[in-house]
Specification:
The protein contains eight helices and seven strands, in the order ααααβαβαββαβαββ. With 268 residues, the protein is α/β, with parallel strands linked by helices.
Length: 268
């Protein structure tokens, strides 16, 4: 029996067992079967990086947000349209709801799942979604020493239309703005921003975004950064410089890899 026929039969056997296979490699089929068998025993198998082991797994017992049906349904709605894990989505959900009156903003949206999650958390507030949607480059510029974890054409597999369809398919409204922030916001009336999820990954975009938002924040507002203290030196450096130039702001690290910024003047 040649290899092609064997792969086809293995794939068909997997499909008959309810297992999808995206590739024909038998190892993938057996991995999927092993995961399914573990799930029947109440276990979930996930890959992990041996350089960053979790010595004490997170205790999810009676964690209230995990029993919140609205949160759970929102995470399911995000699906593969966000790279954010449950923990980061939980932080977004909590701080969006804790913020004072004002508009909601996501800068750096990719497929729009994170923005949809914000809209689900605060359905009665206006939300603005900013992303380059360029198709060729996700970053206007990269610092050769600070932004080494990223390349210009990363996260380009998206479009303005895709995010619009995502929102409309969930009966949600958003103002979706194409272009590099903050230049793309010049003609947009954001009002006072109560909550911003800032996920732009690199030095210049982070610094420009923070400086632009600093004078447009509402009372009791939050900026929640992604990739903070995650070996994205550009983000960390931009935050440090922003805090130096804006001494009334504070940044608090949140696990995993997020930073919470707020102005003391707006929380006085």
């Amino acid at each position: 029996m040649n290899q092609a026929i064997l792969r086809t039969r293995i794939k068909q056997a997997a499909l008959n067992s309810g297992i999808r296979t995206n590739q024909l490699r038998p190892s993938n089929v057996f991995n999927a079967m092993f995961k399914k068998a573990a799930a029947r025993l109440g276990y979930e198998l996930r890959p992990f990086n041996r350089d960053y082991p979790i010595v004490k797994p997170i205790d999810t017992n009676k964690v209230e947000i995990l029993r919140n049906k609205e949160f759970h349904n929102s995470v399911l709605a995000c699906g593969n349209d966000t790279n954010l894990d449950d923990a980061r989505l939980a932080n977004i959900w909590a701080y969006a709801k804790l913020s004072g009156p004002g508009s909601m903003v996501e800068i750096g949206s990719w497929h729009g799942g994170g923005a949809l999650h914000i809209a689900n958390a605060c359905p009665d507030r206006p939300i603005f979604v900013f992303d380059p949607f360029s198709g060729t480059r996700s970053f206007e510029s990269l610092d050769s020493t600070l932004d080494t974890s990223f390349v210009l054409n990363q996260f380009t597999d998206t479009s303005e239309g895709y995010v619009r369809n995502l929102f409309s398919s969930h009966n949600k409204k958003a103002e979706i703005v194409k272009g590099f922030f903050p230049a793309s916001a010049v003609d947009v009336d954001l009002g006072e921003v109560a909550f911003c999820h800032l996920d732009v990954d690199v030095y210049e975009a982070t610094k420009q975004s923070l400086c632009y938002l600093s004078s447009r924040l509402a009372k009791r507002s939050f900026i929640l950064l992604d990739d903070y203290q995650r070996e994205a030196k550009g983000v960390d450096t931009a935050v440090d410089e922003f805090l130096r130039d804006h001494p009334r702001f504070r940044c608090f690290p949140l696990h995993p890899s997020q930073g919470l910024l707020l102005s003391l003047d707006l929380w006085d």
